[in-house]
Amino acid sequence: MFKISNLTAYIESKKIxxxxxxxxxxxxxxxxxxxxxxxxxxxxxxxxxxxxxxxxAGHITYNNESILGKPTYEIAKAGIMLVNQNPIxxxxxxxxxxxxxxxxxxxxxxxNIFKFNKEMEEACQKLELDPKFIHKDxxxxxxxxxxxxxxxxxxxxxxxxxxxxDEIDSGLDVDALKVVSNFINExxxxxxxxxxxxxxxxxxxxYIKPNYVHILSGGKITKTGDYHLAEEIESLGFRSNxxxxxxxxx
Amino acid sequence: xxxxxxxxxxxxxxxxxxxxxxxxxxxxxxxxxMTSFAxxxxxxxxxxxxxxxxxxxxxDGNINIESLIEGDNNHYIINFHGIASSCHGTxxxxxxxxxxxKNNEVKEDLxxxxxxxxxxxxxxxxxxxxxxxxxxxxxxxxxxxxxxxxLQTKGISKEEAIKILKKxxxxxxxxxxxxxxxxxxxxxxx
Lengths: 250, 190
Prior knowledge:
The complex is a heterodimer of chains A (250) and B (190). By secondary structure, chain A is α/β, with parallel strands linked by helices.
């Protein structure tokens, strides 16, 4: 189980999360929706201990172990992987090199190159991604859609048990969105992983059906529902009384 | 144009080249432990010089890269990528374009990563003519935090992430065939 309890976080002197709590049971899919700039992406980075943020209170645990304040790579090694909405590019560092190094660190033994190459090629095929990206520098010269698929290629190889998908739908056309969603659904089915989806749009949730949808407002979750909450947001918007009523009741 | 490629790895001694007319000279240098030394080139007419120079600066010292352009229609580019640790290094790259010359293009691009100690870049352009295109850049910094964070989110320790970024910074000046000859970082790949 992944659990955040009463988390309060700041960037410089600005409070981003205020007594934020969330529980994701094994195998569940949760979606967080909210207005622009409300702290959704920040939440993802805080989970991975991005050094830009300061935690003033609260706890984060994964499988009953505290991960708050742990080095980022240890959180990742525990099985948590973040797919950023704008994956960066790194010149001179290939996907192959990163994945080999990450696998070596994770398994603490030499990897089977034959099996590794086969898995990479199969994942590229599923993702409709040109296999030449395996040997290319990370995200260099890749389109927005290709960047997202490259991140999913990393998931296929590193096999995390908890996925954080930060606006994975941004910059994807309908066809690419279907490919990406199918890949995630298949991965979820095969591994029983948990997923935390950050999105603005219901469309992604049409393809990847969440167990719960949460609304983030004022640094905390103000409303939780099922898929129909996303439908409500889609038709009424975040300015509707879905959020306002909750804010009034605080 | 006659093309000459000179690849040098470690223990590099002082170099001096007179570049002939219509000659293209490419010098690739990788030095895993730089100490004081100098490179001097002289160009006359219609020549092309590229110096790609990368390595570690582990000892106090001065590196002088001097270029003299005496004629017309020459290109000169120096790319330097250095990582300094526990030392005080000065890298001086000086290009002198003589009076009365025309249609020359020169560029100095010096980049450094500072682990410990000090690093002093001196990209100098001595331009004695108005008919020249000249530019120079110098950047000294640390390993990019965003890239370090990204690599760590893949489960790579900070130590290994730095090794990866170090290698990419040093090698991205060079073509694949030259990189294959460099032994630094090979144990990471095996």
